[in-house]
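Exam revision sheet. Question 4 asks you to relate a sequence to its structure. Input first:
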Amino acid sequence: MLILLFLFLLAQDSAQAGVLPPRDDSSQSPQCPNQRTVVDITWSCVATMFACTWISVHPNIPAPEERWWEAIIKRFQYMLWTIFAPEIILFWAIKQWHGARRVAKQYRHYDPNWTVTHAHFLQMGGFMLYDGDEPIGILSYENFDNLLEQHRIPFPSITKREIMDRSKSDLLAKCVAIGQLIWFMIQVFSRLAKHMPIAELELVTIALAFLTGFLYFFWWEKPVNVSTSVPVHLLMRHNSPPSPNLPIDSGRSQMSTFTVYDEIARQFTGPKKIGTFYAIPLTSTIEIRTILVASVVGTIFGALHCLGIYKPVFQLRNDPSDLINFDFWRPFSLAVALIPGLIAVVALLRIWNERAQSKLSTHVAGILTVFAFLSLPFYATARVGILASGFLSLGSLPPGAFNTITWLSYFPHV
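Answer key, structure tokens:
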């Protein structure tokens, strides 16, 4: 029914909206009620990017002594990671998704009410080990499991509701953010269906919104912006080693990409904070499949940028600056699509080699891995170039980019 309503409204708008007469290039702020301004375009893109990069990322719990301004800086770091390397954030989210489900099943014999949210809470640094009144350090999954098997800690008795009470976001907030993403995607694809030009920044935003949808899915049951951990007190036992000798490890990221990052951060935070990109360790098979899923989604993410290679999408004028901008857009969008695709091919070869045990595929996968590693600087350059091109092109949009689709204004959006 909703699809039929969408098609009906699209047809109605097609009948009402005509092609506006050519607009004077010197006019940068159209005043027609059925037109939008550069400010309107920029604001909708920025608001959607904010939902993509700030709200969708579910960080691990910070150190107890971390101040409010340090937390804001950390959120900006996550935002930059999501803008310039969204596939890596997606890889982290998928790892946590797999780890949370495995641990939720593992500990149900301790507590039948143990949920995926509990497991997420564990791997985001939700449990702090105490020796009496003295905090020793955050319990990573590895240390939590070891101490539990040794009967040196009690199994936590916190409920899912108590965990979610610590979360700074609820279902309504997530639905509002997702609603903004859906509205933006409908707007852009409706314009393409009607052969109306879109801004380069809109195409950048639609690609980011697509990938962010996967972040919301994989982190749906993970609490958001929890700032305090739950104490787990060490049980007193005879003949137990002294507390300082406990194998407290605040949890490394388990991802080679972030190992150096975590080791540097560890020098400043100590054991009272979980690793910035920590996730419960997975088997090598699941790890490779996680890389495959993240890289395939990343390839589609990059392919969405390649839509801009088709000139009617932007409907660029014959202005030299527009053509130069377009010449940069093509190699940048191809790089963003092909490099994750290369990583996906490597992952597929490694999965196939697990069964075939082929030396040839092992060598080919090794060579492609080297190429993929060497191409990462080009990927980073392409991401920066695409984002810069999107903002720079706002100063020379074609007249048709300011036309609006009337019925979309009836949907709530930012």
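Marking note for examiners. The mean pLDDT is 80.
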